[in-house]
Amino acid sequence: MSRYRPAHLATALVCVFLGLASATSLAAGPVPDDWQAVREQARGQTVYWNAWAGDTRTNGYIAWVAEQMAETHGVEVVHVKLDDTSTAVSRVIAEKAADNLDDGSIDLIWLNGENFAAMREHDLLYGPFAETLPNFALTRPANNPEMVTDFTLPTEGFESPWGKAQITFYYDSDELRGDSQEVKSPPDSIEALLDWSRANPGRFSYPRIPDFTGSTFLKQALIALVDDRQPLYAPVEESDFAKVTAPLWDYLDALHPHLWRGGRQFPDSGPALRSLMGAGELSLAFTFYPSEPAAAVADFELPASTRSYVLDDGTLGNVHFVAIPFNSPHKAGALVLADFLLSPVAQAHKQDLAVWGDRTVLDVAHLDDATRRLFTVDANNAAMLAPEALSRTLPEPHPSWMTALQEAWQSRYVAR
Amino acid sequence: MWLRLTPFVIVAVLVGPILAGVAMVLLPAFGYLPTLGGETFSLAPWRELLAQPGLARSVGISLASGLLTTAVSLVVVLLFLAAAADTRLDHWLRRAVSPLLALPHAAAAFGLAFLIAPSGLLARLFSPWMTGWERPPDLLIVQDSWGLSLMAGLIIKELPFLLLMSLAALPQLDAPRRVALARSLGYRPTIAWLKGVAPALYPLIRLPIYAVIAFATSVVDVAMILGPTLPPTLAVSILEWFHDPDLGKRFLASAGAVLQLGVTLAALLIWWWLECLARRLGRRWVVNGQRRGGERWLRLTGRSFLITTTLTAGLGLGGLALYSVAGFWRFPEALPTTLTLGHWQSALPALSSPVTTSLIIAASATLLAMLLTLAALENEQRHGRRAGKNGAATAPNRRVTAMTLLYLPLIVPQIAFLFGLVVLLESLEIRARLALVIFAHLLFVLPYVFLSMAESYRRFDPRWTRLALTLGHSPNGAFWRVRLPMLLAPLLTAAAVGMAVSIGQYLPTQLLGAGRISTVTTEAVSLASGGNRRVTGVWALVQATLPLLGFIIAMGLPRLLWSNRRGMQGAQ
């Protein structure tokens, strides 16, 4: 592993003196404005990309990205597989604490929400860089504010959008078939979910808090149950947490006895819900990735009778991003990678149901015809959510709500 | 000359990092970690720890799983050995148990989970014709709040370990003669063994038992798969706190790690106290003259329990294999509707790099451990015993201390010192990841290699060496040309044990490799967070196969090389 590090101050000074800015700036970070120079600098670098690896399809896509990057940009991409993104965040924090300011172990990190908030708060990110990526313009951030907003926080260019997620419910239409062979309708709202769970005890659950998907379910329920949503979009300290969340706890107290395992145990994660659906332990579940049910059908994990939908009032959706830690030794490579991830080829490949099925962040309607054709969605897949359903997207509350809800949930329901 | 230094090298390698790691956890546990703003000592981390919901329960389950797992495993091992006769079943059982030792903990845990889950293999086999279940029953079995499935998972692994440790120690005791003597006094065989051999065997396997207690109170990967969740065991909670993006939780986690150290120590103390109790009560029982009471019952329990354990592990592995090729598999069906190689095909390209890394790490750590162990044992042969001229007691005494230190990495919970070690290495700016991981593995490989090699090395008939010396060979020549070749079988077995231990390591790989070193084990655990049973099946099988291959080679090679020398082929 070769990495540049000015051995002596003198050498560094000489370099600056000779105008070799690109050589010395590695320690301080490349100058992203000169994209050609960034690309030159990136060539030959090894980028350690820390990304959650609980899904083989995601991992497969990242492996494809690595191949492309090696071929077209001469950058080696190593997928550092995480079982929880906060591991990587705490590693950067530990490195900063240990005064490791220019030789960190992470070059790019896949994150959003409270992890981004935590990294920004501790000044752990390099940037702003997003606006300098040539492909970033394709997301048309001026018209799509969610591309520069992460859980109400402005990203300010410290992370670059990668994909889109939205809570999507799915069920086995065979399971819900009544005596008349007609599919009984699955619950279309948070309130209806309670009635449905009463009628079908043990057939629904949500991932154990503090899991990401599980916490999102809490927020989804809270949004549906409060009269005034406004306080949720400001920091939690500004409102009376106990009062605002009281309806949520009443709701959960009523719901839990009718959940899987009587609410005494919860599945580990979003994908664990899917696995329980496949095993027949649940009849109704939800995911953050709208195409996950269809993809799971293709992988034999779920029956072909699987159907997806979103709640009538819409469901929470967000954008997930990639960011560069402040002490990454390979920032140029990370920048080129972040840009490649935004390229139409990479975005279209990612959206392909056979590959991953993660929705694009590009503003497809404004791409040229040939490029747009790359993004055509197969409308015939029965397990797939109808594209228009995703227009009913609820924005994420302020990230502080997530942490507060998690803590409150744990002190209420752990060790009861 | 350098040979004499090896004991010190071993002690330094094992003890240094552990003490340093524990120190680096103790300081933040009392609020001191300047880099994170902890400038003064305080009890705040402890107050925060005590305020954690469900802490008492976490601690209780860690404690209980340590003690119960060990107690059940020990009782079963003793009963089985007591009742064991020269029957074919017993030979088969002994043989079937050794590969279980090679099975990584995570793979065994996955196997068990797939077997006993409400939608698992067992429920499928008996549904719906017997149970009437058309849907998986809504039962809390895996990850139950009492930690029973966790204990079951641990017993599957600890039973074979204690059994093999006992089998290795037994030859020192001349058990057949003890039993024969007792039988001549009218004792039934099982009672004869329990009263005549077991009390002498126990001190020989005491350290392995302590290692089992320590492991079971602080295990992370098995507890993540099978352990309770609301709250999880203490070790799992500590891991979560350490990984929390809120750095303030580092203090809490450190306090937790110190508490874990205390819990493990408490478990050991309770066990020690139980030992005293058992000794007092047992002494009366041994001499009470009862010659036959409960013979049949004792005989049945040990054997049936061991058979159940072996079968469970086997069925679990079968379940993993089945899931790894399963197409869609609706609940009551005992077999998948369709079979597919798709999961293997898509995993294959991703397999080669972690497999290679695992093998490199395992081979390097094992090689180092073998070198150190051989040097230490050879030193003991040449100097150790001769040194105690004025009293035979000194040598065994020294050996006892060395042995205890060897067990240190197995008794201090990994979670209690690895984090401290990471912080320490970070601040020393040591970032040679692969080397660090190999070094961390060495901490755990070395004790096991030493333990599995020491007995055969020490029991090696000294007359062979003396013969070689009289024929004009130097001590080194005798070592290379006589001792090593003759000990090939146990050496290879020790190497296979070392490889297996290394391949199964999760926490050291993850922490010291900064997540960048991916082995089959880290890969399997991170993929398991995706909850896809088919993919988990593939990876757990790969994880289980690697060490098994090592054992097959270790058993097969001596037979091949020494096909014309029956006495040197190893395993009877």
Feature tags:
heterodimer; A: 416 residues; alpha/beta; D-Maltodextrin-Binding Protein, domain 2; 2 domains; 3-stranded antiparallel sheet; 15 helices; disordered N terminus; B: 572 residues; mainly alpha; MetI-like fold; 0% strand; globular
Topology order of chain B in helix (H) and strand (E) letters: HHHHHHHHHHHHHHHHHHHHHHHHH
| Main sheet specs of chain A | 6 strands, mixed
Corresponding CATH superfamily of the largest domain in chain A:
Periplasmic binding protein-like II
Largest contact between protein chains? A-B, 69 and 64 residues
The CATH class label of the largest domain in chain A is Alpha Beta
Written description of the protein model:
- The complex is a heterodimer of chains A (416) and B (572).
- In chain A, strands 1, 2, 3, 6, 10 and 11 form a six-stranded mixed β-sheet that branches.
- Chain A contains 15 helices and eleven strands.
- The N terminus of chain A is likely disordered.
- The termini of chain A are far apart.
- Chain A folds into two domains: 219 residues, Periplasmic binding protein-like II (D-Maltodextrin-Binding Protein, domain 2); 174 residues, D-Maltodextrin-Binding Protein, domain 2 (3-Layer(aba) Sandwich), CATH 3.40.190.
- With 416 residues, chain A is α/β, with parallel strands linked by helices.
- Chain B is an all-alpha fold.
- Chain B has a domain of 250 residues: MetI-like fold (Orthogonal Bundle).
- Helix content of chain B is 74%, strand content 0%.
- Chain B is built from 25 helices and no strands.
- In chain B, helix 3 packs parallel to helix 7, helix 10 packs antiparallel against helix 13 and helix 19 packs antiparallel against helix 22.
- About 2% of the residues of chain B have low confidence.
- The chains are: A alpha/beta (416), B mainly alpha (572).
- At the A-B interface, strand 1, helix 4, strand 2, helix 5 and helix 6 of A face helix 15, helix 18, helix 24 and helix 25 of B.
